[in-house]
Specification:
By secondary structure, the chain is an alpha+beta fold. Helix content is 32%, strand content 16%. α2 packs antiparallel against α4.
């Protein structure tokens, strides 16, 4: 598969087969996240792999029942004590850096024939308690990983004309 094929094939999987994820594939996904770029190369992230009983407990942080089908989840966390902050306004890059790592992981999972779904709508405080996270570590997203038990839906995407501007906002890019 080429990179454009992987990008087009990736979708949010919310139904998983009852099939475990091979350890080698999990390592490849984690390695893809590890290799992601970050601001000033600070790499302010931690990846927590959650399986079995701990996964059942983690599911209590999210209201949708389908998460319980996933054989594992990766909790991607930002370390705000290790992230770069922009000088002009103090913008913390931790969430951006975590997002880049997550995207790398989702694309690698797709390449390996696995599915993922980027979840941000969860109880962060409860997740932190369950995983015993220190104060400076923030769970950014839950990333369930498994073999899809559903076909990719038709994805509607805006045209480039709707989202690309030339030189300034509102100017057509042609």
């Amino acid at each position: 598969m080429t990179l454009p094929d992987i990008i087009k094939k990736r979708f949010s999987v919310r139904k998983f087969k009852a099939q475990p994820v091979e350890r080698q594939k999990l390592i490849q996904i984690l390695e893809a996240g590890r290799m992601a770029p970050s601001a000033v190369n600070y790499q302010p992230w931690h990846f927590i792999v959650v399986e079995q009983e701990k996964l059942a407990e983690l599911c209590s942080t999210y209201s949708a029942q389908w998460l319980q089908q996933a054989p594992l989840a990766i909790v991607i966390c930002s370390d705000h004590s290790q992230s770069w902050k922009r000088g002009s306004d103090g913008k913390d890059s931790a969430d951006i850096d975590a997002a880049i790592a997550i995207d790398h992981m989702t694309l690698m999972a797709t390449f390996l024939g696995l599915g993922t779904c980027w979840i941000c709508n969860f109880n962060v405080s409860r997740c932190s308690e369950i995983l015993k996270l220190p104060r400076n570590i923030e769970p950014v997203a839950l990333l369930p990983v498994g073999y899809p038990d559903i076909s990719a839906p038709n994805k509607r995407r805006k045209s480039l004309d709707e989202i690309v501007h030339y030189n300034e906002f509102g100017q057509q890019f042609t």
